[in-house]
Amino acid sequence: MLGRCAIFMRSSDGSDLTVVFTGTEETNRKFLKMLKHFKGLSIPLIRIVPVCSEIKGLEQCLRIRRTDLLVFTSKTAVNLIRELADLVTENVLMAIGPGTADSLRRIGAKSVLIPMEHTSTGILRILSGLDRDLCVQLVSSTRIDKGLAKVVKEFKGGRCFRLYDIEPDEGGIRRLRELGMCAVVLTCRTAAEAFRKIRKKYITIAMSPRIADALEDVDFTYRGKVSEFVRSLERFLLSRIGD
After folding, report:
1. Listed residue (233, 73, 101) closest to 166, CA to CA
2. What is the C-alpha to C-alpha distance for residues 29 and 217, in angstroms, rounded to an integer?
3. Distance between CA atoms of residues 233 and 243, nearest Å
4. Chain center to CA of 93
5. Alpha-carbon Rg of the chain, whole angstroms?
6. Which residues of 167-190 are buried (b: 16+ CB within 10 A; e: fewer)?
7. Comparing C-alpha atoms, which of 104, 103, 237, 108 is closest to residue 182?
8. 53 — pLDDT class (breaks 50, 70, 90)
9. Which residues, listed in sequence order, are joined to residue 185 by a DSSP beta bridge?
10. For residues 151 and 166, what is the distance between their CA atoms, to the nearest angstrom?
């Protein structure tokens, strides 16, 4: 497999290889700006489908009362409630990681809590130590971690608002299938599941072990901080040149 990488990476600076990011356009743009040694391309393999009834439900809940803690698990969830910014930012807020926290600050949040571990497990650890008489609401996708959803419901008035679903983007799948050899970066499990339909050989990069678990064949699995991901990705690809 590593030999396959070398065959298509003849240039010493990596310029012969295109790195394809497969998340949402927003996520892809962020990573593309960080690339230094390779050509980059955005081909989303997923599309966001808002669940309007859940967005309305969150609005009604926030109008009735303030919550003791409002937890967001993604930037996408924040983007979908921009029109509710005044209601949202009146509450104590928690974000799954720095990117989501930045999105909350952009809509007016002055202070955002962030768990040390930027995962559902990190949120779960914080919630496990809180008084169950608190009102805790969680805002996420329909693919919320089941353990996290269960704990949220243990709180007084605890509820999970599943604001959107993530579906495979058939147009993106077709575009990627038409490309020649490239390095494909999979940033979520839904993108990984869509990628499995293509059945072509690419250099495959999974952004986390959980994403790698959805694939049969992975060249590189990242296990560090999101902020260091692109640097580690390029280091991996450059190390394979000439192998």
Report:
1. 73
2. 26
3. 17
4. 19
5. 20
6. ebbeebbeebeeeebbbbbbbbbb
7. 237
8. very high
9. 21, 205
10. 23
Lowest mean pLDDT among 13-17, 82-86, 142-146, 197-201: 13-17
Domain boundaries, the chain: 2-45+169-239, 48-166
Return the CATH number of 2-45+169-239, one of 3.30.160.390, 3.40.50.1100, 3.40.50.10090, 3.40.50.720: 3.40.50.10090
> What pLDDT, on the 0 to 100 scale, is given for residue 200?
74
CB of 85 closer than 8 Å to CB of 109: no
Length of the chain equals: 243
**What ranges in 67-208 are assigned the alpha helix state H?**
75-80, 85-88, 98-106, 120-128, 146-152, 170-178, 189-195
Residue 241: DSSP 8-state: T
Euclidean distance between the first and the last CA atom of the chain, given in angstroms as a whole number: 11
pLDDT score at 6? 34
The matching CATH number, chosen from 3.30.1130.10, 3.40.50.800, 3.40.50.10090, 3.30.1330.30, for 48-166 is: 3.40.50.10090
